[in-house]
Structures are given as C-alpha cells and as structure tokens.
Amino acid sequence: MLYNEKKHMFWLYKKVGEFLKDAVYAANDGIITTFAVVAGVVGASLDPVIILVLGFANLFADGISMASGSYLGTKSEEDQCTQERGRNLKVLRENRELYKERVSKFLRNKGYGEIKVTELSQLILENEQFALDFMLHEDRGLCQQVENRAFKGAAVTFVSFLIAGLVPLVPYIFFSNGANTFIYAVLFTGVALFVVGAARSAFIEKSWIVAGVEMFSVGGVAAAIAYGIGYMVSVIVVR
C-alpha cells in the first residue's frame, strides 16, 4: 500500500512538475499584467466598466500571446533536440568507436578512472536509446522529449494565465460600484501571489510559507511598480 502511494506521488510529481514552470510563470504574469490594467484605469479615475472591458481584453490577448510564445519556444527546443538526436544516431551507427570515445571522454571529465570508464561506456552503449539519451542530456544539456510537450505547455500557460489573471478583476465583477473595490483588488492580488507561490512547495524542496512569501515579495514589487507606472502615465494623459 505504501509502495503504491509513493509510486503514485512520484508519477504525480513527474507529470505536474514538467509544467510547473509554465504554470507559475503564466500565473504570476497573469496576475501582475491584469492588476497593471486595473491600476492604470483606477489612477485615471475612469468608469469601473472600462476596467472590465480592458481587463478581459488584456486577459485573452496576453494569454494567447503567452501560450503561442510558449508553444513556439518549446517547439524550437524539440526541433533542436530532434536534429541533435539524428546526428548522434548517425555517429552511433556509422562510427561506434567514435561515439564510445565521446562517452568515455565525458566520464573521464567527471572523474572516473579508466577501469570504470571502460565498464560504464560499454554498459551505456549496450542500449542504443539509452546511449543517445545519455549523451544528449549529459553532454548537450538537452532533455528527453515529452510527447506533445509544446501543445501541453501552451495549454497550461493559457489556462494558468487566464485563471490567475482573473483574480484582480473579481472585485469589479461582483461589486464594481463599491468604494473599496480597488482595495479588494489589491488584497485579492496579494493573496493570489502568495497562493501561487505556496503551491510550488508541493513539487520543490521548500517550505510553503517561504515559497509563498518569495512569490508574494517578487510579484508584489512588480505589481507596485506597475501601479506606479500606470498611475503616472494616467496623470500625464489626463493633464
């Protein structure tokens, strides 16, 4: 029972961890960019309806932009990995001794003695796919490809950006005419930044409090700068 539970947790960490960076980055960006729109409109003392119009327009436009950027970036990495894999496969099949020497050289650089280098290089080359993965990852720094990684990463980016970016708009959706609506938006934004940061602790070796405070601090500074810039620009334009 305990083994199955650990196995399930490992599978969960592996699957979710693959896209954790995409989710956190998109969520943080969604919160801050949407809050910047809210701050700018509030600074200009415009109608709250404009906050919703500009907020949702920004939410979908930036979300699509980030998702497409994530897709193209990951796709480029996958294409590079495919090309490198093809080159390495050609060397492995046409000049096995040269490939073995590359593996041996890498192992020597890691501090292994000649006896271990000989044993390990022979063991690595017994499995063609492992030999390719080993050199691509260890020597070239390229990760093993994940099926539909680019599409899944883009989907995670878009959904995370959309959900997190909606948070600063929630007060204006439910009580847009309230006197303290902007204060609620600030509080919601702060809580969202902390929650997104704390969620990382499930997949990294860091306390959820530390992870939350870290995200809150970094995002809070960025949000404060966005508010300041939005306010100054709004004042200049109004004048």
From TrEMBL:
<keyword id="KW-0472">Membrane</keyword>
<dbReference type="GO" id="GO:0005384">
    <property type="term" value="F:manganese ion transmembrane transporter activity"/>
</dbReference>
<feature type="transmembrane region" description="Helical">
    <location>
        <begin position="154"/>
        <end position="175"/>
    </location>
</feature>
<dbReference type="InterPro" id="IPR008217">
    <property type="entry name" value="Ccc1_fam"/>
</dbReference>
<keyword id="KW-1133">Transmembrane helix</keyword>
<keyword id="KW-0812">Transmembrane</keyword>
<protein>
    <recommendedName>
        <fullName>GMP synthase</fullName>
    </recommendedName>
</protein>
<dbReference type="GO" id="GO:0012505">
    <property type="term" value="C:endomembrane system"/>
</dbReference>
<dbReference type="Pfam" id="PF01988">
    <property type="entry name" value="VIT1"/>
</dbReference>
<feature type="transmembrane region" description="Helical">
    <location>
        <begin position="181"/>
        <end position="203"/>
    </location>
</feature>
<dbReference type="GO" id="GO:0030026">
    <property type="term" value="P:intracellular manganese ion homeostasis"/>
</dbReference>
<feature type="transmembrane region" description="Helical">
    <location>
        <begin position="215"/>
        <end position="238"/>
    </location>
</feature>
<feature type="transmembrane region" description="Helical">
    <location>
        <begin position="31"/>
        <end position="61"/>
    </location>
</feature>
